[in-house]
Structures are given as C-alpha cells and as structure tokens.
Design a protein that fits this description.
heterodimer; A: about 120 residues; mainly beta; globular; B: about 110 residues; 7-stranded mixed sheet; 4-stranded antiparallel sheet
Chain lengths: ~120, ~110
C-alpha cells in the first residue's frame, strides 16, 4: 500500500482565492511527521509546512495551513489568497518514527497547481 | 533551501561514464539524505549517511551506485557506468530540527 497518496489531477484556482490540496497517508507508527513541499518549474524543493502526529493544533505558516485529520489519516494543504507565484508542483511527505531517529521522507506523487490571473 | 549546497546543478554524461554528485549539508550538520526524482514523480529515498557512516541504504540500487560522507568534505553520490535510466534529478537534504527538512537545489543528471 502506498504510504502517501495524492490523487487529485491538475488543480486550477483563481488568483486571490483559496485552494485545498489533498493528501492521505498510511502508517502504523504512532509517531510521525507530515511535510508539504513546493517545487516550482525551476526545480528546487521548497519546504512549506510541518505537522507532527502529536500536535494538538493544525499547523499554519503565513498563507499555508494544514488541515490535519488524524482519524481519517489526511493532511490537506490549504493555500489562502492564491498568487500567480503559487503555480507549481506540491508534494506531501511523511517521516515515520521518533524525532531524532532516521528522518527519511516518503513522498507522494505530487499535485500540479495552476493559478489563473 | 537554508544552506544545503549541491553541485553541479546540471551534469551531462555519456552512457558508460561515471557521475559524481556532491552535497554539503547545512552548517553544523553531520548527516545527509539523498533522494532521486524521476520525471513526473515524487522523490524517492536512496541513502542516509552520517560522517564516515552509512546509516540506511535501503533505497540504493544494488549495483553501480555508491555514496560516502568522509570526515572532511562533502558527501558524494557516485554512479558508475551510467545508463539512460539514471537520468533524473538528485537531491540531498538535511534535517536541522525534527520539524524541518531542507533540500539542496538538486543536480539534474542527463545521460546521453
């Protein structure tokens, strides 16, 4: 079974509107962390936001927030007030295990977001 | 990308040649993770190294690929006798804190 699932086709959003990018995960480890990355056409991987499995509140970083629903094993990224520069691939990733242990990440296949002017 | 340095950014090799990719982690960090991204896919873990030690190489192909992180100098991912299927973007990362994981800008390897 895939550990990280991103199944949405290419997403489109109007500039200044909000958009939600879906991510579901699968793990039996009670300790894990969830990450979102942005990869623009230039190719670099830009860290956006992190959510720990024991965090009581949803993570927020500026215009990014993470809708963490632990029972449903989903960690959707919400981008508010979309900007043209948000057009990119977005990847969800998971680290399993305790903090300080081997922190390798497992990635989903990504979602393409296009922001329309 | 908080200080993870990779070079070269682009590398072209002919089939059968060797490719050497370099990564220096964030300042003060002694561990790196290497990932490979094939076209239209997410990143796949290859290897996790600390200085002079390979901790986890479960994602490394069994042949032609090797990695090292010497006491002095950058981590090196080495691909011998490259084939067209090795064409990909190779990223390294370091995790300064539990809640962060930063990547270098990647090396785009093209095998011709």
């Amino acid at each position: 079974a895939q550990k990280i699932t991103q199944t949405q086709p290419g997403m489109f959003v109007q500039e200044k509107e909000a958009v939600t990018l879906d991510c579901t995960y699968d793990t039996s480890d009670p300790s894990y962390g969830l990450f979102w990355y942005k990869q623009p056409s230039s190719g670099e991987m830009i860290f956006l936001i992190y959510q720990g499995s024991y965090d009581q509140q949803n993570a927020t970083e500026g215009r990014y927030s993470l809708n963490f629903q632990k029972a449903r094993k989903s960690a959707n990224l919400v981008i508010s007030a979309s900007q043209l520069g948000d057009s990119a691939m977005y990847f969800c990733a998971m680290r399993e295990g305790l903090a300080g242990a081997n922190s390798k990440l497992t990635f989903g296949k990504g979602i393409t977001l296009s922001v329309r002017p | 990308n908080a200080g993870v340095m990779q070079n070269p950014r682009h590398l072209v090799r002919r089939r059968g040649q060797e490719a050497r990719l370099r990564c220096s982690p964030m300042k003060g960090h002694s561990h790196v993770y290497w990932y490979r991204q094939l076209p239209e896919e997410g990143l796949k873990f290859m290897v996790y190294l600390q200085k002079e030690n390979i901790i986890d190489e479960s994602g490394m192909p069994k042949e032609r690929f090797s990695a090292e992180f010497p006491k002095e100098g950058p981590s090196i991912l080495r691909i011998q006798q490259v084939v067209r299927g090795d064409s990909a973007a190779y990223f390294c990362a370091s995790s300064p804190r539990d809640r962060e994981a930063f990547f270098g800008q990647g090396t785009r390897l093209t095998v011709v």
